Amino acid sequence: MNDIGALADSSGHLAGRRLEEWNAAYEKVENYFHALRVRNKALLGQLVLRVLERAARRAPAEPQRSATQLAAEEMDRIVIDWFAEVLQEPPANADQMLSTRGRLALLLADMPGRWQEQFLRPGPWPKEFISAMRESYLRAGPDFQLSKMTPRPLDLGPITTLTYLGRLPYLKMVLAWTLFALLLVAIFIITH
Amino acid sequence: MPGASPSAPASSPSTPLRVMPARRIGRHGLRLFIFYSCALLLTGLVSMLFADLLWRTGWSASCTVLLVLFVILFLFAAIGCMHGLYGYVLRMFGDDRRITQLKAYRDQSIAGISTAIIFPIYNEDVVRVCEGLRATYESLERTGQLERFDFFILSDSTDPDKWVEEERCWYDLTRGLDALGRIHYRRRLNNESRKSGNVRDFLNTWGRRYRYFMVCDADSVMRGETLVDLVKLMEVHPTVGLIQTVPALVNAESLFGRIQQFANRLYAPLFIAGLNYWALDFGNYWGHNAIIRTEPFMQFCDLPQLPGRKPFGGQILSHDFVEAALMLRENWEVWFAYDLEGSYEETPQALIENAQRERRWCQGNLQHGLVLFAKGLRGVSRLHLILGICGYLAGPLWLAFLITFNWIRWFHNHTGLSDITVQSYVLKGLSGTAHALLIFIICMVVIMLPKALALIDLSYDWDRRLAFGGLARTATSVVCETIFSTLHAPLLMLWHTRFVVMNLLGVSVGWGTQQRAADGTAWGYAIRRHWGHTLIGLVWGVFMWFLSPSLFWWFTPVLAGMVLSVPLSVLTSRRSLGARARKLGLFLTPEEIAPPPELVALRANMKVHELTEDNSLRRPHAGLADAVLDPYVNAIHVSLLREKELNPVYAEQLAVMGVGSPRVRALGEKLLALGPDKLTPAERLLIMADGRTMVWLYHEAWLRTGESLAPWWRASIREYSRLDVS
């Protein structure tokens, strides 16, 4: 926090950006950690400021980028680096797939419930936490045992002939006329 | 077979060759002959009386039409009556020809036998599905046999929000029960062939791992012991391909639901016992709450497409009857295990919901007309199919009967023909009015007899009497249920007529979304759905009054149902009235008075959800927002998509859909820039089926500044600030 304070200048700007910009960045980072279910307020504040501090250090060198952009990038980088370290994935592979794996590991290891204080903390971590993170995997189904059901032929008998008749041109029209004629006959019989 | 590896082919398809079909048919032949002869005999005698009555008033062509309709309708009623009568006798004197009585099965080991319990779902209430599964799972756990079973939620959902909700609920459920690897979730990429296609997809992917599979509906709950018993029964009867349980209706709260539930619980045991009398091992399948031997099902029960155009051609909609028929065709036995308790399902809570379900079933059953003459099917299978079809044809036939009768009366009045009847040929000295009254009374007895027998059956069983809340309350409930079903019957008649006619004309009967008030069907919605019934009732009533005031009163039960359809529909959908009836001791069922632990757990968990979840603040496309923005939901979603890619069938489908193509990335850009409203549902589903795009969207949505995101995203991100921080 003190480090961030040191980046403030006399015009009320922080690392060359207006405070409103940093406020928007703060909100974005805070929402992200909320989404990760970091529920402890002290930890949450600490993590947000850590991200903002890194963003503020980059800010003077990248004047064309907004504070929110810088903070979002730093937030992502911090999390990915930490996943790489905890999951022992080489940083070179620290791509978006690592992020997915890491988030899944956090969920399966129950970080929001059991290990909140370990989140983004540098190692060493408790053995139980490490094994929970590294051994967690999610599978929605057992191993496939693929086969192929195929319908056996079903001879529909006279129905096949009927459906064949159904394809004849003008059949519906002829049927409608026949029904009409039968209706007239029925009316005649009933009324006489 | 016991002890076979679950991954090995579960059972030999050659096993049924040991069965002696000729002997089975012989026994069936006798039972069928006796059963249906009774129905035909009764129909013949009463039809003679009716023909004599018509003859007394002067014969005409219209009378021939009326007589034919009467014979058909009375035969339906007589068959129903015989089911009740035979069921009563069998329950009184015992029936050893039951699957549960043929061999001792309780001590049968099921070690090494693997069974899948599948829940095919389609845009269902996910929370209810998962809670039903939880209740079943926990019940099975109490039997100590849990490790022999795997659970599958097989989704065919097309709503993106439902898809995400299903994944969340599945994860929460498996975490809560510590059942990762025991409860599985799979969503199909397309819902080809609907439920039967969904089951087929499961069998093609995992079927060979399991010797048996148990099909449950979205609202099914099964007791653990019952599941174990079913597997044991299958094990001791190696020639049985399918055992259908008789699910008890439970958890109804509205008045309509509770009436249906009560009728099901009180009358069904008689009817099913009667059905089992003639069906025996040539039983039927109702699509859920049944155990199936995987191998023969996979080998013989894949359904062919029917020739011709919709609604009759194409895929078979009501697949269950046909699957049972195909199983029987190959000499496998199909039984009803009607005396196994612990099989539950729910019922529609309102008249209109019930009609919606009837509409689907009507189309499916009429389609069975195409299969009826298929070569190789057993005669009993054809009988099952015919009875299903007749259930829906009875409505239009009854309407035709009433119209013909009205026509004859009108013709008499219009032409000035005398109403003075000649002497009866059969019943000498009986007046015309008394003759008509006698036939009416016989018809009423035939219709009401099963209800009375169910009540008598109950009166002999002290435990069951208590389970239904006592004989007096049950008798009062039967009377009230009879009044309600009398009013409901004309509405079903009109609905069924409409469904049948529309289906025959090849027109789909549209319905729209059910509009519910806080406590059931909304008045406006009921008026829109029932105004036609009311109008028909009023016009018909006025016509009858002018035709003959004395006849009008005979028609009042039919007319009253139509005229009062709106209030009947609205009021019976009310949960408050259902609760009031319960307070009065009406329509009580054993599961209401002494709910089994599975249902207690289900209700308690559903109550917790009801009290803790506030979905009123959920934004449109909330599922999509969660799948993209929520770090954990996104991770689960993407992981499941990656797993899907390992299945070559799905991988091919994904490729056909265009997953991984630049088009999907472009759609993703559009989604970020303009929001989900600017995409079609199919485009949203396509994006959600692309794992890489979903990961990319997650990062872009969190890394981009607010200005480069659609306002919908900004609002969705802000919602995370509302998450509870403690």
Kindly describe this structure:
The complex is a heterodimer of chains A (192) and B (726). Chain A has helices spanning 2-6, 19-35, 41-58, 67-86, 96-108, 111-114, 127-134, 158-166, 171-191. With 192 residues, chain A is mostly helical. The mean pLDDT of chain A is 83. A 7-stranded mixed beta sheet of chain B has the order 3-2-1-4-8-6-9, with helices on both faces. Chain B is built from 28 helices and 12 strands. Chain B has helices at residues 21-56, 61-93, 99-102, 126-143, 160-177, 194-206, 224-236, 255-279, 294-300, 319-329, 351-371, 379-415, 432-459, 462-467, 471-504, 523-547, 549-563, 565-572, 575-583, 590-593, 597-612, 622-629, 631-645, 648-657, 662-674, 681-688, 691-703, 711-718, and strands spanning 115-121, 149-155, 183-187, 212-215, 221-222, 240-245, 248-249, 290-293, 333-337, 343-345, 516-517, 520-521. Chain B folds into 2 domains: 1-465, Alpha-Beta Complex (Spore Coat Polysaccharide Biosynthesis Protein SpsA, Chain A), CATH 3.90.550.10; 620-722, no CATH class. At the A-B interface, helix 2, helix 4, helix 5, helix 8 and helix 9 of A face helix 2, strand 3, helix 6, helix 11 and helix 23 of B.
Descriptive key words:
heterodimer, A: 192 residues, mainly alpha, elongated, B: 726 residues, alpha/beta, Spore Coat Polysaccharide Biosynthesis Protein SpsA, Chain A, 2 domains, seven-stranded mixed beta sheet, three-stranded mixed beta sheet, 28 helices, 7% strand, globular
Q: Unreliable runs of chain B, pLDDT <50, ≥5 residues?
A: 1-23
State the helicity of chain B in percent bands. 55-70%
User: In CATH terms, what is the architecture of the largest domain in chain B?
Assistant: Alpha-Beta Complex
Average pLDDT, all residues of chain B: 90
Structural class of chain B: alpha/beta
This entry's quaternary arrangement is heterodimer
Query: Could you give the order of the helices and strands of chain A?
Result: HHHHHHHHH
Show the largest interface. A-B, 60 and 76 residues
Radius of gyration of chain B: 28 Å
Question: Uncertain spans of chain A, ≥5 residues at pLDDT below 50?
Answer: none
Shape of chain A: elongated
Structural class of chain A: mainly alpha
CATH class of the largest domain in chain B: Alpha Beta
What overall form of chain B do the CA principal axes indicate?
globular
Mean pLDDT of chain A: 83
The structural domain count of chain A equals 2
Number of helices of chain B: 28
Q: What Rg of chain A is obtained from the alpha carbons, in whole angstroms?
A: 35 Å
Would you report the number of β strands of chain A? 0
**Proportion of residues in β-strands of chain B:** 5-15%
Number of domains of chain B: 2
